[in-house]
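Structure first, sequence second, as always.
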């Protein structure tokens, strides 16, 4: 705060106006000199919430309702530079980055007779990032995630999509998916440490664990709100498909989800 002597207020009115105008003009000049870029910082993203259905556990033949929660990165603008494209706008072509998230519910052996004798597995959250290369009508991508909670392994997905935009509101993508996981992840969900009356001992190793296809659809209600849904099929392969756990359940895995998303533009 600027400090002026009290004698300032003893000046004659005309001189007082001049004396007051000088510091005021200086303040305005300082404000005008502030970088404009500070007002252009923004973070654009979307949050989705809804419901879905997925196998009770990897390799199960039964299904349960699951929450559908997701975070989608749109763009980051800072100092005159912008990374990404705002939610709802047609994405730019070329390389881009995205977040990666997956939730796996707990596996309670007491709820499934075929798992009797196996240890329970807590719910797990997988967090990571992805790289995508996108053109107007197609895209390819890869994602890697690290598990927390029920497992501490590393998983990932490789996929490709064709992109349809029938009009300004609809976006539909469809394409193949390949799922991978390291030894820690594979042995957690598909390994059997000690033989049980129904399951033989089995040590599962990582690698390509599944392949399938996914179809997604987004309908934009306006610039902020959208309806989103997806259906995916996966066939468990290699050590995941050969696991006694999968043989007692099913190597055909379906998932589906439906939710509402809201875009936000946070300026800071």
């Amino acid at each position: 705060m600027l400090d002026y002597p009290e004698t300032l207020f003893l000046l004659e009115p005309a001189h007082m106006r001049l004396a007051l105008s000088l510091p005021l003009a200086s303040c305005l000049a300082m404000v005008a000199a502030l970088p404009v870029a500070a007002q252009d910082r923004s973070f654009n993203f979307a949050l989705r919430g809804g419901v879905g259905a997925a196998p009770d556990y990897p390799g199960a033949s039964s299904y349960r309702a699951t929450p559908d929660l997701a975070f989608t990165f749109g763009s980051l603008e800072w100092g005159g530079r912008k990374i990404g494209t705002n939610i709802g706008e047609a994405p730019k072509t070329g390389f881009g980055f995205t977040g990666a998230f997956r939730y796996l519910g707990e596996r309670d052996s007491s709820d499934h007779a075929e798992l009797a004798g196996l240890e329970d597995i807590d719910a797990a959250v997988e967090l990571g990032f992805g790289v995508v290369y996108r053109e107007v009508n197609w895209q390819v991508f890869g994602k890697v995630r690290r598990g927390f909670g029920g497992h501490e392994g590393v998983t990932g997905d490789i996929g490709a999509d064709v992109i349809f935009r029938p009009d300004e509101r609809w976006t539909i993508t469809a394409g193949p998916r390949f799922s991978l996981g390291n030894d820690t992840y594979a042995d957690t969900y598909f390994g059997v440490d000690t033989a049980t009356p129904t399951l033989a001992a089995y040590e599962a190793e990582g690698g390509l664990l599944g392949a399938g296809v996914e179809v997604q659809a987004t309908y934009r209600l306006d610039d902020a709100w959208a309806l989103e849904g997806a259906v995916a099929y996966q066939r468990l392969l290699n050590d995941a498909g050969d696991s006694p756990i999968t043989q007692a359940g099913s190597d055909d895995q379906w998932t589906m989800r439906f939710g509402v998303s809201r875009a936000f533009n946070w300026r800071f």
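Margin note: The first strand starts at residue 42 and ends at 55.
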